[in-house]
Amino acid sequence: MxxxxxxxxxxxxxxxTGKSSICYGIGYTLAKQGNRTLIIELDFGLRCLDIMFGxxxxxxxxxxxxxxxxxxxxxxxxxxxxxxNLSILCAPKDAFMTVTAEQVVDICKRIRKYxxxxxxxxxxxxxxxxxxxxxxANLILVVTTPDPICIRDATMMSDEFYTRGNKRQRLIVNKLxxxxxxxxxxxxxxxxxxxxxxxxxxxxxxxxxxxxxxxKGTPLSPEAPSLMAFDAISKRLTGEQVPLVIK
Length: 247
Ligand SMILES: Nc1ncnc2c1ncn2[C@@H]1O[C@H](COP(=O)(O)OP(=O)(O)OP(=O)(O)O)[C@@H](O)[C@H]1O
Ligand SMILES: [Mg+2]
Description:
This protein has one domain: Rossmann fold. It is 38% helix and 17% strand. The chain has ten helices and eight strands. The relative contact order is 0.20. The model has no long low-confidence stretch (mean pLDDT 89). The protein binds adenosine-5'-triphosphate and magnesium ion (MG). The site of adenosine-5'-triphosphate has 20 residues, from α1, β7 and α9.
């Protein structure tokens, strides 16, 4: 288990790649593996973590209350009932509220002794605001799908981090479809990794069970292929050697 909490930013160039779903899945599996985990949602005005965990009615406070000074950080976090080690700090409902990188770092510093992992779900898009925040992380997880436009955007994002001197990046390929998992799949995966130019940490299959669970806020089935992929990624994040198995 990590001595210092690992601050992990999940980001992508293009929107809709699955960043929030990945925060949900990795957050859940890290917690189930015994790590005290917090997910901070920075997608202002577009909160979704509460729905994903089936908690839309039970989230009383959010990051906005912390930024406004109305609540202490830990008091604004909500425990996820399905995973005892997991909490979420939801994005403010107010889309016009802003947060600076300094504020995010300060929040993480103040609560780091309570968590082994703090995962930051960034909003979509390449802008300097996202870069400034993501750069503070110990590890950046760049998410792409096999879609060529998405790969190009992930490459741009990753190149920009490299230009800024940030080499702590890992790639997640999400929504790999059954069609992709054909005889040419390995070549395709290699191509994606070569194009983006960062080391792969995991591949998540396209999984209707994940879409359904996060959409309805119902638990993800233990047999769901995506859950196995999240579990493997979480183990790799804690330093375990887990072979890449694609289902
Ligand atoms: N592995 C997957 N299999 C099937 N559907 C997925 C998978 N990952 C994500 N999705 C679906 O893709 C859509 C977008 O996912 P999600 O909201 O997690 O993306 P995002 O990158 O956070 O989007 P945004 O950029 O808007 O914040 C959702 O409908 C989600 O259920
Ligand atoms: Mg999102």
